[in-house]
Automatic annotation (TrEMBL):
The keyword Hydrolase applies. One of its GO terms (molecular function) is hydrolase activity. Residues 21-243 form the AB hydrolase-1 domain. This is Hydrolase. Keywords: Hydrolase. SUPFAM superfamilies: alpha/beta-Hydrolases. The keyword Hydrolase applies. PANTHER family: MONOACYLGLYCEROL LIPASE (PTHR43798). Pfam families: Abhydrolase_1 (PF00561).
C-alpha cells in the first residue's frame, strides 16, 4: 500500500497507468475504492490516481484539521508531490466541493473539473434545505454508525436488484471512524465558494443524477455562473451515480476528458 506524509497527515493513495493524470476524489465517509467502476475504464488512456482524504479510508484520522480548505490543501500537496501537470480532477459530493475549493484557490492547477452530484456551497438558504441539513447532522450524531450506514445504503441503492451493492457500501461505511466522519460532516455545512466561481478557467462538466438530494435546477443555476461548463443529467440515478449508472457515467466522463485533453496520448505527468 502506498502512503505519503502530507501536511502532517499520513495519506493513502493509488497511482496506476500512463497518460494525462486523472485524480479521483471521493465523497464523505468513502474512499478511493469507491471508484472501482471508473478506474478500469480510464486506465487504457490515463494515469489514474485516487487519494483517501484525511479521516477517510486508509488515511490517518487526526483529531482536528477538518475543513474543505484543508482537504483541498491536502490534494494540492499530493498533486505537487506526485508532479502532476494539469491533472483532470473528478469529485463526487464532498469530493466535488474539494475540487471547487482547489480550482478557486489555484485556478492554474486543473486541466478540467468533473463535478458529480455536488455544488460550490453547502449553505442552507430555503426552509427545506435547513431541515435536510439539520436532520442529517442530528441523526449522524445520535445514531450508531451502523444505523447511519444502513440508512445511507438504503437511500442510495433502494432497488431490490441493488442488494449486493447496498450490502457492500453498508459494510464500507461502517468502517468509518465515527469522530472523523462527524468532524468531516460538520466541516461541509456552511462552506461555500459560489462568489469566487469566476476564478475557474478550465472546462467543467457537471453530472447530476435526476434523483439526487438537491434538484437538477440547483446545478443548472450554478453552471450558468461558470464559463466553459455544461450540465449532463443521468436518469434513474441517485447520489451514487458512478456506481448505480456506471456505464452512462463512464461514457460521459471519457468523452469530456477526450475533449479537454491537455497533451498527446503519451500524456504529460511531469
Amino acid at each position: 500500500m502506498a502512503y505519503l506524509q502530507l501536511n502532517g497527515c499520513n495519506l493513502h493513495y493509488t497511482d496506476q497507468g500512463e497518460g494525462d493524470p486523472v485524480l479521483l476524489v471521493h465523497g464523505l465517509g468513502s474512499s478511493g475504492r469507491d471508484w472501482e467502476h471508473q478506474i478500469p475504464a480510464l486506465l487504457p488512456q490515463y494515469r489514474v490516481l485516487t487519494l483517501d482524504m484525511r479521516g477517510h479510508g486508509k488515511s490517518d484520522k487526526p483529531a482536528g484539521g477538518y475543513s474543505v480548505k484543508a482537504f483541498a490543501a491536502d490534494c494540492l500537496a499530493f498533486i505537487n508531490h506526485m508532479q502532476l501537470v494539469k491533472p483532470h480532477i473528478v469529485g463526487i459530493s464532498m469530493g466535488g466541493m474539494i475540487a471547487f475549493q482547489l480550482a478557486t484557490d489555484h485556478p492554474e492547477v486543473p486541466a478540467s473539473l468533473t463535478i458529480v452530484n455536488s455544488g460550490p456551497e453547502l449553505i442552507p438558504r430555503r426552509p427545506k434545505e435547513y431541515l435536510m441539513v439539520a436532520q442529517r447532522l442530528f441523526f449522524a450524531h445520535i445514531l450508531p454508525l451502523s444505523a447511519v450506514a444502513k440508512g445511507l445504503a438504503k437511500t442510495l441503492f433502494p432497488k431490490p436488484e441493488q442488494q449486493d451493492i447496498r450490502e457492500t457500501f453498508e459494510g464500507r461505511w461502517m468502517e468509518n471512524d465515527r469522530r472523523a466522519y462527524l468532524a468531516s460532516l460538520r466541516a461541509l455545512v456552511g462552506w461555500g465558494v459560489t462568489e469566487r466561481l469566476d476564478r475557474i478557467n478550465c472546462p467543467v462538466l457537471v453530472i447530476a443524477a435526476d434523483q439526487d438530494y438537491t434538484p437538477v435546477e440547483r446545478k443548472r443555476e450554478y453552471v450558468s455562473h461558470l464559463g466553459d461548463a455544461h450540465l449532463e443529467v443521468i436518469e434513474d440515478s441517485r447520489h451514487g451515480t458512478p456506481i448505480d449508472q456506471a456505464e452512462k457515467f463512464n461514457a460521459l466522463l471519457l468523452d469530456f476528458l477526450a475533449q479537454s485533453g491537455s497533451s498527446s496520448p503519451a500524456g504529460n505527468n511531469g
